[in-house]
Amino acid sequence: MQAFSVRGILYILLATAFIGCSNYQKIVKEGTPVEKLEAAKKYYQDKDYMRALPLLEELMGLYYGKKEREEIYYLYAYAHYGDQQFLLAGYLFNNFAQTYTNSPKREEASFMSALCKYERAMPYELDQTPTQEAINELQSFINQYPNSSYVSDCNQKIDVLRERLLYKVYESAILYHSLGYYKSAMVSCQNALEDYPDMINREELTFLVAESAYLYAKNSVTKKQLERYQETLEKVNAFNKEYKNSEMYKKRIEKILKASEAEIALLSNNK
Q1: Cβ(209)–Cβ(239) below 8 Å
Q2: Residues 213 and 126 in one domain
Q3: Percent of the residues in the chain that have a pLDDT greater than 70, as a whole number
Q4: 178-182 contacts: CB < 8 A, separation 24 or more?
């Protein structure tokens, strides 16, 4: 009895799917533009983007130059977004905003264009070009619509993306340091500190600048060491100026300071 019930349910589901498919094909082949638009809206509302998108694409041509096309374009862009086709959706939202400049939906479309860029941002370990592009477009939206209700959401998303970029830079600096590429580590840390002055790991990276400078000097050829140890002192002084009461790095920075001063004295006497 139970097996028969399951079989019966499967039969009903298959029959329903077949009827639904038949109705869809009939609309596609024989439906009027009005019927296709109604069907497209229904499929869109049901999140059946596989059926909605072909109809909307056809309707874009059928209603070209007519007032209904604005709504169709709007749904067409959103259907791509719902289908997670963020690259194409972003293009469509942006084009909508550029085409329908007087539309009440223009602001929303501009936001959605930026949101699509946000959705395409990569995890921190991958290329961060899309992440920076997303930040730029979100900021551009804020500049264009400073009083928009979407501004708060944009700012939150920018913070998330900035953290991702920051972690990418931070991981790169740590990697350079651990591999012994001290000059690259120093430059990477300095760039991070300049680009993200409010970063959480600022004290650690400021210390790594000084430590990397010291290790870079220590591993340099003799004729370059004096200049590079002097540069190390500059980095140490910069750290002490900003973090004179550092609990985590006080002993290590003092050790770097004393070692650098000793090396400078020795190298100066040997000139």
Answers
A1: yes
A2: no
A3: 90
A4: 180/215, 180/219, 182/212, 182/213, 182/215, 182/216, 182/219
Q: What is the pTM of this model?
A: 0.72
CA distance 198 to 163: 11
Q: What is the pLDDT of residues 170-217, one digit of tens each?
A: 888 888 988 999 999 999 889 888 887 877 788 999 999 999 999 999
Report in angstroms the alpha-carbon separations of 51 from 42, 61, 96. 10, 17, 22
Token representation of residue 136: 């730029």
* CA dihedral over 108, 111, 117, 122, signed as positive or negative: negative
pLDDT in tens, 18-75: 434 568 888 888 788 899 999 999 999 999 999 999 999 999 999 999 999 999 999 9
Which residues, 6+ apart, have CB-to-CB distance to 265 below 8 Å?
Answer: none
Residues 138 and 192 in one domain: no
Q: Does 4 have pLDDT greater than 50?
A: no
DSSP state, residue 239? H
Q: 147 and 205 share a domain?
A: no
Instruction: Round to whole Å and give the CA distance between 121 and 113.
Output: 13
What is the C-alpha to C-alpha distance for residues 239 and 5, in angstroms, rounded to an integer? 75
Question: Residue 230, exposed/middle/buried by CB under 10 A (0-12, 13-18, 19+)?
Answer: middle
Contacts of 55 (CB under 8 A, 6+ apart): 27, 28, 36, 37, 39, 40, 43
Structure-model confidence comparison of residues 47 and 12, the more confident one: 47
Which domain range does residue 109 map to?
Answer: 89-167
